[in-house]
Amino acid sequence: MRIPFIFATALLAVTPAAAQLRVDINSGISQPMPIAVPAMPASAPANTAAGTTAELGVRIAEVIANDLGSSGLFRPIAPAAYTTIVTPADVLRPQFAAWRTVAAQALITGNVTANPDGGITLACYAYDVFGGDELTRQGFVTTAAGWRRAAHKCADLVYSRLTGESGYFDSRIVYISETGPRSKRIKRLAVMDQDGAGHRFLTSGQNLVLTPRFSPSQQQITYMSFEGNRPRVWLYQLGTAQQQAIGQFQGMSFAPRFSPTGQSLVFSMAVGGNTDIYTLDIASKRLTRLTSQPGIETSPSYSPDGSKIVFESDRGGAQQLYVMNADGTGQSRISFGDGRAASPVWSPRGDLIAFTRFGGGRFAINVIRPDGSGERQLTNGYQDEAATWSPNGRVIMYQRSGRGGPPSLWSVDLSGQNERKLRTPLDGSDPAWSPLLD
Amino acid sequence: MSLSVAHLPQPATTAGLNVSGPEARALIVATLAHIALIAALSIGWAWAAKPLPPADEITPVEFVDIADAPRVTRPPEPSIEAAPQETTAPPEAPPESQPVPAPTPEALPAPDAKPEPEPKAQAKPAPAPKKPVAKPLDTQTLSNLINKALPKAKIKSLNTSDLAKTIEAAQPKNAAIDPRAAATLAQAIRAQVAPCWNPPIGGADVRRMTVLIGAEYRADGSVTSSPRVISQTGVSGQNKDYARAFAETARRAVLRCSPLKLPADLYPLWKSVEINFDPEQMT
Fold first, then answer.
1. β-pair type (A51-52, A308-313)
2. What pLDDT is recorded for position A20?
3. Has residue B244 got a pLDDT over 90?
4. Which residue has the higher pLDDT, A192 or B4?
5. Radius of gyration from C-alpha coordinates of chain A
6. Confidence tier at B34 by pLDDT (50, 70, 90)
7. Which is more confident, B178 or A16?
8. Which of B50, B59, B63, B231 is the best residue to mutate to test the A interface, defined by the most A CB atoms within 10 Å of its own CB?
């Protein structure tokens, strides 16, 4: 092989500059990218509180593969198809040729080491298999018990490097766990990782709870509870399990959400037969009324910059979406067309609002631009409602119920593809996605 | 554990003890065994006591514990300087009609030309997903190449204005070549590269983004080196990461679909190619 190359090189010296051919490619394929996430080898095998570093290497690779696969943008290749086993040396110098034979376009590898303080370090690497070069690398130090978070961080790193957008895997979901007959439904606050791991209940189920929402710091949840038969907005401190009503108001308060700074809440309150939107400064307990029209104004949600609020109102006869400035001025309707529109939630990117569209006896999740243009339908179930955005604004989780069936949690990506059901121990409704954990 | 310790050879010094004969030996063995047992137990205690994971209970405190941010560190640099240069041509079975060695645009550095060890083909246990273009080079007519519809490629049927545009685009800048040959070549390249291009069309900025990639080919159709980005449109301060990922998908498409199957006699025309990737028909 060497001789032709030398010959060719010699020819090049006497050949004039070659003509340039130009090719235009206007379409490609839209498929999940095949990736390989082999078990991470233990370069220095050791024990940790969560298992040996070799065991952790296997489990961390599984979590990363599951995260990336769940996005619908990547397709982890089944480990049984691998033609090579990753050794510690391969982490820094992968066998690219072997990964090409299984058509993996990216390789995610790394290693887990035990730290003297009992913690672990996950070194995470991503490679472009066909280019044969390193894409990114990052180390994550955490407690042994925090290995799943380190794996999610690694998956977020790879996701953002390969898509150019921020990830969403190191995040949590708070939702309403439901069980029991329709007449005696028990509803509890529950929280879990976005992949369903680490599930736990936060309330006992004695009182009916609804509409939980994370604070921007992820340390608080605001929700509505019927505690004492008084439907009111409550706050739950995740660090201390402390629950408290936000204040003694005249009427029923509901549909709370945090402002983007986390310093105030916006919610609805029914006073004297009129339901309007209010804000409450959490520290000073100062209450401000934002709307005053007759009719029901509810489901307020801030834009990510805090300058505007989208909400639903039936002031025009049926529920529709309206946008106003954060001080209540400049209210204008943004949703039109057949049917009703409710439960809006502003994307963390700011470019879209997701909501529930009622029409033709069905509920669907739609998105619309804040100026009312570009409405499109994402889901096509019998009853899909209660949308919440992933921290990067690429995925929407919602509650789906069949005809008379119990609700469960589903997710769909912004293109309307990749619908997935999230497994929960009991029925699930009203999910709210946390921001990315710090 | 304690059993093996009990069988340990006895120490040489037993002088300090006032017991003699077999009794003394038994006592020493028993003492040693007890010490060993206590030591083994305390080691066990130390293991059990220190690193027990926090009980996985429904307590919000745990949430906060888990929320401790992993510290970010830099893993060690690789000991090798750079990723290995590799050939993507099939290692075995040289094409039946080897094209005449033709000029390559750049000299290959001798030390880097070592191909990676290819895995044994027989050892492959599971059906590997098929590579888009992997058949060995053979002599096919130009029309065969063009007519061959590659799977999954969404190629627009050619109309005359398109063809004229293609011919214009394919017209070499500094050489007089047959425009029809250039156009058909461009179409053959498009038909082979497009099925390997998987652009990130979900991105918010995809509509305005295109990337022009320069690729040099060997006479066997393989890419000589890493394709380069000549220019890119639609890049702003906010979307740099996305723009990089976008350009990489184009580069990856050229690498994945190497080697190209193109007529050897036209090699001077396709030795160096500029490919413009624009997902306009996908968005």
1. unpaired
2. 81
3. yes
4. A192
5. 26
6. low
7. B178
8. B63
Residue B16's Cβ-count burial label (10 Å; 0-12, 13-18, 19+) is exposed
Shortest distance, CA B276 to any CA of chain A (angstroms): 5
Q: Which of A1, A14, A25, A434 to mutate to test the interface with B (most CBs of B within 10 A)?
A: A25
Q: Residue B40 is encoded by which pair of tokens?
A: 């083994």
Which chain A residues are within 8 Å of B86, Cβ to Cβ? 96-97, 132
Using a CB-CB cut-off of 8 Å, the residues of chain A touching B248 are 128, 131
End-to-end CA distance of chain B: 68
In contact, A317 and A359? CB cutoff 8 Å:
no
CA atoms within 13 A on the CB side of A428: 26
Sheet with A287-289: list strands edge to edge: A252-258, A264-271, A274-281, A287-289
State the pLDDT at residue A261.
Answer: 96
Q: For residue A132, which residues of chain B lie inside 8 Å, CB to CB?
A: 83-86
Question: What is the average pLDDT value for chain B, to the nearest integer?
Answer: 60
Q: How far is CA B179 from CA A69, A197, B173, B182, B276, in A?
A: 45, 61, 12, 5, 18
Q: Give residue B233's pLDDT.
A: 93
Q: If you search the block for the tokens 């206590």, which residue do you land on?
A: B38
| DSSP type of residue A189 | E
**B151 at A interface, C-beta within 8 A:** no
Question: The whole model's pTM is what?
Answer: 0.75
Average pLDDT, integer, range B107-135: 41
Phi then psi for B188, rounded to 5 degrees? -65, -40
Residue B198: which of A22, A28, A198 has the nearest Cβ? Answer: A28
Q: What is the pLDDT of residues B200-224, one digit of tens each?
A: 876 666 778 999 999 999 999 999 8
Question: Which residue is closest to A118 within chain B, CA to CA?
Answer: B51
Q: CB A374: neighbour CB atoms within 10 A? A: 11
Confidence category of residue B91, pLDDT binned at 50, 70, 90: very low
Best mutation target, B61, B65, B68, B266, to test chain A (most A CBs within 10 A):
B68
Residues B231-237, mean pLDDT to the nearest whole number: 91
- The dihedrals phi and psi of A119, each to the nearest 5 degrees, come to -85, -175
Number of helices (H), then strands (E), in chain B: 8, 4
pLDDT digits (tens, 9 = 90+) for B133-145: 434 434 344 445 4
Q: Which residues pair with B221 in a beta bridge?
A: none
Are A92 and B61 within 8 A, CB to CB?
no
Q: Which residues pair with A427 in a beta bridge?
A: A178
Check CB contact under 8 Å for A49 and B53: yes
For B78, the closest of A92, A95, A153 (CB atoms) is A92
Scanning B92-131 for CB atoms below 8 A from A yields: 101-108, 113, 115-119, 123-131
Q: Residue A112 has what pLDDT?
A: 94
CB-count burial class (<10 Å; 0-12, 13-18, 19+) for A224: buried
Is B246 within 8 Å of B209 (Cβ atoms)?
A: yes
Give every CB contact of residue B226 below 8 A, 6+ residues apart in sequence: A131, A133, B251, B255
Q: Which residues of chain A have pLDDT under 50?
A: 1-18
Read off the pLDDT of residues A108-117 as tens digits, 9 standing for 90 and up.
Answer: 999 999 999 9
